[in-house]
Specification:
Strand content: 5-15%
Distance between the termini: 106 Å
Oligomer: single chain
Number of strands: 10
Number of helices: 11
Helix content: 25-40%
Largest sheet: 8 strands, mixed
């Protein structure tokens, strides 16, 4: 069962936090579950036990070829959340207790505002028409989301949303949510928090709309650093042939992943992402830190012909033809100077008009003419007498 979310859905299902008793995070288990694939939302049996250390994370990485099935690649860089009191590895039960104690429900990040939860940030992106989200729910448990898809429609700047400052508030387009509006800071945070739906056993299928604007704010580079695909998941032909060929045809960005983001937009390349918690020594001479790890995977059903050399050439050929057509049309329309514009659009006084004012003026002139004729006739008759 799938459901594409609309603004009305968030208003109807918004949490009523006033007077509500908060419950611990409903994580059924914090074991290393294999994240769900996009094409088949089924849970595989875990061979992990409660006695295993939470710091053990497999990093399976192989380049995808037509004869191999894509696997998750755990990114080597980890997102630091907080320093824990643990000076040695703990089991999963202890980690679960710690996570439920430090995080609010539906907010798996450090925060002191429980009203701005995952649903709030997801609503911002839907209401601002930045993304399209579809949640695929479990057939046997409608309250459980197996996996979700997200299509990026646009990544907005302050000007795009009508903000002057990052801290000013703008109302939601669809009123009725328990929070009146959001700031641009909220909008940026939404990209980093809306997708923290559930660790371990939930996955996101990310893609860009083909009309997604390529004018992308700088902070989105950081989003891509965490959630975006990594080089080891790409098939060899994409990484070694298609992408280098594509870069030769676009304005090269020497810093940041903008070229690769454009590549995904133009070639319609999706990817799969999942995340989970882990413990590790992140700071020197400090206890263990609670970290967030991200895993990404290639979507095996993507048609590689689309980003082949022939496919890329065809794309740029069509794009260049469209640009040429636009330029030709623009050149065929002559530009008018102010004098020509005034001649093309004469003032209302020079054009016949049937306005009430003109009708009144014409009527008065006719009455005046008849009055003068009557007076002339009267004088002639008087002279005749």
């Amino acid at each position: 069962m799938k459901k594409q979310m609309t603004a009305t859905d968030y208003i109807k299902n918004q949490p009523h936090l006033q007077g509500r008793t908060l419950t611990p995070n409903p994580y059924s288990a914090l074991a290393e579950y294999p994240p769900l694939s996009y094409s088949k939302a089924v849970s595989e049996k875990s061979s992990k036990t409660e006695t295993q250390s939470s710091t053990t994370t497999p990093n399976t990485t192989t380049n995808t070829t037509p004869n191999t099935k894509p696997v998750y690649y755990t990114k080597p860089y980890k997102q630091h959340l907080m320093t824990t009191p643990y000076t040695k590895p703990v089991n999963l039960t202890q980690l679960k207790t710690f996570i439920n104690r430090v995080f609010y429900e539906d907010s798996p990040w450090p925060t002191d505002n429980i009203t701005k939860n995952q649903s709030f940030y997801e609503y911002i992106l839907v209401d601002s028409k930045s993304i399209e989200i579809t949640h695929y729910k479990d057939k046997t448990n409608p309250n459980l989301i197996n996996y979700s898809t997200c299509k990026f429609l646009r990544i907005c700047s302050t000007q795009d949303l009508g903000f002057i400052h990052h801290h000013t508030t703008k109302p939601f387009s669809t009123p009725g949510y328990h929070i009146d509006g959001y700031t641009y800071t909220d909008y940026k945070n939404a990209f980093f928090r809306a997708f923290l739906l559930r660790p371990y056993d939930h996955s996101w299928f990310f893609s860009f709309d083909q009309n997604c604007t390529k004018t992308i704010p700088g902070w989105f580079n950081e989003w891509w650093y965490w959630y975006g695909p990594a080089d080891p998941i790409y098939p060899d032909q994409v990484l070694k042939t298609s992408y280098p060929f594509y870069k030769k045809h676009v304005f090269d960005q020497p810093v940041g992943p903008l070229n690769k983001i454009w590549f995904h937009i133009d070639m319609g390349i999706p990817w799969i992402c999942s995340w989970h918690f882990t413990l590790a020594i992140a700071l020197q001479d400090m206890p263990y830190s609670l970290l967030r790890e991200f895993r990404v995977k290639w979507w095996e059903k993507y048609n590689l012909d689309r980003c082949s050399l022939a496919g890329i050439q065809k794309y740029f050929q069509i794009t260049n033809q469209a640009k040429t057509a636009i330029q030709t049309i623009s050149k065929s329309i002559p530009l008018l100077n102010p004098t020509q514009i005034s001649q093309t659009n004469p003032s209302p006084q020079k054009r016949p008009t049937s306005s009430p004012t003109s009708s009144t003026t014409s009527s008065s002139s006719q009455k005046s003419s008849r009055k003068e004729k009557n007076e002339e006739t009267y004088r002639r008759n008087a002279d005749a007498i």
